[in-house]
What does this fold into?
Amino acid sequence: MRVDDIREPVVAGSFYPAEPDVLRQDIQRYLDAAKPPVAPEHVIGLISPHAGYQYSGGTAAFGYKLLQGKTYKRVIVFALSHRADFRGASVFPGKGFKTPLGVVPVDTEVVKKLHEASPFITHNLLAEQMEHSLEVQVPFLQCVLKDFLLIPVLIRDQDLSTCQKIVDLLLKVLPGDARRDTLVVGSTDLYHGSSYKECVRMDTRLADTLILFDEERFEDEMARDEIMACGPASIMSTTLLSRAFGAHKISLLHLTNSQDVTGYRSDYVVGYLSAVLY
It folds into this structure.
């Protein structure tokens, strides 16, 4: 693979360790400590946080622990583009996605078909160069799964209509048996703000709304500022596609926030959630 075919890591050494051995040890420590309250036989989707591992790695591990011993042909990750602005979805068209743990091959066949199917699917180089929300999911996947193909999907517009268009395009180009061997991951953090009390209240409500498996209600509550997530499109895309793959239930695995994790009551707090769709 040529170097320019590979998406290089941009937050190794900041959001997670750049040294492979240290990174594996940290992830294993999080996995060992995680005690998921449910253990579905077939996991179809996960909702997972995307902050630095020292803040949200423990919560992410609740979902990823459920994947140990399981096999998937491909993993689709929906994640927020925090900084780059574009319509539709930005999907990396190269051959591999690199972390300190090695290169994960991209599902180039499906990605090529996606780009050919609609101008709604683009590749925004600026998004690739600046974004952490998708990248931080990959080392966890590398540690809990064997070989898999990655479909990395960055989304800027956070509305349900955009999510439905992206999911419809994926369903159009994915092979017919994809529902049996594809994992879906939605990457998002929750409340961002200055009130610990509001963080707990709003994140608890979001969790209660999420498990209803109702994207229209979720979007409505987001619009009315009753719940908060930086990547609602990651959540809604994951629920939409997971339902198409046969999921009919969502269970909360873990809910916390940066102040509870660090024990430090600062003037800013971010919420983290892990959930499973099955």
The mean pLDDT is 97. The longest strand covers residues 269-277. The chain has eleven helices and twelve strands.
